[in-house]
Amino acid sequence: MEIEEAAYAFPWTRGIFEDCLRVGYDCQGIQLGSLLVGYAVLTQVAGECHLLNLCVDPQWQRRHLGSVLLEQSIRKAIESNCESMFLEVRPSNRAGISLYRKRGFQVLGERPDYYRAASGREKAFIMFIDLDQDHANRTRPVPRHDPL
Fold first, then answer.
1. pTM metric for this prediction
2. In this structure, is residue 146 part of a structural domain?
3. Which member of 4, 48, 83, 88 is catalytic?
4. Of 39, 100, 115, 122, which residue is the catalytic one?
5. How confident is the model over 77-130, as pLDDT tens digits?
6. Is residue 35 part of a domain?
7. Each residue's pLDDT tens digit, 63-87
8. Does the residue 147 lie in any domain?
9. Could you tell me which of 58, 70, 53, 57 has the C-alpha nearest to residue 105?
């Protein structure tokens, strides 16, 4: 809760985290020594993975830990035979959007009035990655030009 509350103006509640744990969502963390510095929460159903929350303690941001958590989440989804991954992100979360775009996520659509915001509500971008295509692209041998 300390990380969530430090990172977001409108954090998840303790009850949301408890519900995620109770129903068995995949909750992953990243530790430095014994210190938890970030986490991801995802759920998988019918070949799809939904990344519900990815958060790094503000004191530890900009050190590629978000990328590590995202890769860990994608690996988990692939191991669970998911074909795709979805997430929602605030348009105002430029760092998050940049992280997801660099990894190959594309904007699929929008959810109006999805997030609480200081001025009422903020829409969400729905982002998507095709894990089958992504995995194929990452495991395909790189063609080499051989002039002989």
1. 0.87
2. no
3. 88
4. 100
5. 999 999 999 999 999 999 999 999 999 999 999 999 999 998 899 999 999 999
6. yes
7. 999 999 999 999 999 999 999 999 9
8. no
9. 70
Number of domains in the chain: 1
Whether residue 148 is contained in a domain is answered as no
Rounded to 5°, angle at Cα 84 from 26 and 28? 20
Active-site residue flag, 100: yes
CATH number at residue 99: 3.40.630.30
* SS3 sequence of the chain: CHHHHHHCCCCCCHHHHHHHHHCCCEEEEEEECCEEEEEEEEEEECCEEEEEEEEECHHHCCCCHHHHHHHHHHHHHHHCCCCEEEEEECCCCHHHHHHHHHCCCEEEEEEEEEEEECCEEEEEEEEEEEHHHHHHHHHCCCCCCCCC
| Cβ 58 vs Cβ 7: under 8 Å | yes
Nearest of 132, 74, 140, 129 to residue 105 by alpha carbon: 129
Q: Which domain holds residue 31?
A: 2-139
Is 4 labeled as catalytic in the residue annotation?
no
